[in-house]
Amino acid sequence: MSYEKMTSEASDYREVAEDMLAAGLTCMQVSQILPVKRRTVIDWGHLKTHGRKENFLERMGLEREAFKPIVVAFIGSGWGYRSLSKFLDLNLWFVRDVARDYRRGTLKGGHDA
Question: Would you say residue 3 lies in a domain?
Answer without folding.
Answer: no
